[in-house]
Amino acid sequence: MAETGKGHRQRLKERFLAGEPRAGTDEALLELLLTYAIPQKDVQPLAARLLVTFGTLPAVLAADLPALCAVDGIGEHAATLLRLTARIGRNHTSPPRTVTSVLPPTKEVAPRAKLTAVSHTPAQMGIAPEEASGEGTRWRAGGPYTAANASKAGLIEETRLALLANARLRDLAAARRELLDGGLPQRSRATREVIVRVIQDRLVAWRPPPWVCKDLTASVEAPDTPDFPLLLLLHAARQDALLYDVARAVIWPRRQEGLGTISRVDVQRFLDQALPSHAEIDGWSVATREKLAGNLLTILRDYGLLQGAQGSATKRIVEPVVSPRAAAHLARLLTEEGIDAAALYRHDDWRIWLLDPPRAQALVTAAGEGVAR
Q1: Rg of the chain taking only CA atoms, in angstroms
Q2: 334 and 347 Cβ atoms separated by less than 8 Å
Q3: The Cα angle at residue 290 between residues 260 and 25, in degrees rounded to 5
Q4: To which CATH superfamily is domain 2-91 assigned?
Q5: H, E, C per residue of 260-274
Q6: What tens digit of pLDDT does each residue of 318-372 get?
Q7: Is the dihedral of CA 136, 148, 178, 161 positive or negative?
Q8: Over the range 70-94, which residues count as b (16 or more CB within 10 Å of their CB) and which as e?
Q9: Which residues lie closer than 8 Å to 76 by C-beta, 6 or more apart?
Q10: Domain 129-317 -> CATH class
């Protein structure tokens, strides 16, 4: 029996070294990695269990040590190898490249701003005004697509609680402790740790200037407006190239063509079209692609861009109600990012909210008039 296992492990390694496509799936890569931490045991079921728990290989490698050790079959030795692999990957990856658009830009679309690469901040729940000047801000995500959203949701309520805790305590470490110690509704601490990390990635890992967090907190404290989910949609999309492109290069064109729905099949078709410029998609398993397509639509539904029942394959596209204050927030983001005033209202970011240039400009003008009054 041991010889059979040894032979299987050898074949895994040989397939990987030969560059066989089946050796490049999330499950095959994770299985091979686990063989170096867990000897004389079939680790394929464990690899599959990790992917079911966290969604994708990047999500497995990004998981905290307690979350990994909470998975049946993972001990501290294996968890340490996974964390070490993630750390090496972060420390030795090349700077992100500019995203290549799948669709050719129209005459109305301004080019996306030049990206500024910057290291992520330490694990934080928020950024207090006195702790960040905006210097070194990574305004938007670039580089390859990732399948990280295959295991994520909108986390509207959890993000609201995080912002309120940070505003109330005015201490980042204390806010994080409160959330991990029961400030979030999830029963498992390991799950709460994952959620805190997701919120960090979306809201603070890119080192936003202080006014961004102030605006987000203000939108939480004004429940009579729809600004909060729309601002979360904006920032989540700007920090995830795939989510951004699904919103502006799939949903926007469908809306312009008078099509009122989007399905998982539409997202899968987009991934097929994106493959020539995003070779990383070829390494995703069929199961990962299917789960990712569904979860991207769920995230956009949570943020109010889509409507539809949980788990439904098709969602209805909804025109969001964008307030002048939210529009002014985006206009300031683009201005501080370095977008020229002449191109401001033609930028792709407005398409996340399904806004055309005249409507975007009218909203920002209304915001300015409101301040003047």
Answers
A1: 22
A2: yes
A3: 150
A4: 5' to 3' exonuclease, C-terminal subdomain (1.10.150.20)
A5: CEEEHHHHHHHHHHH
A6: 999 999 999 999 999 999 999 999 999 999 999 999 999 999 999 999 998 765 4
A7: positive
A8: bbeebeeebbebbbebeeeeeeeee
A9: 65, 69
A10: mainly alpha
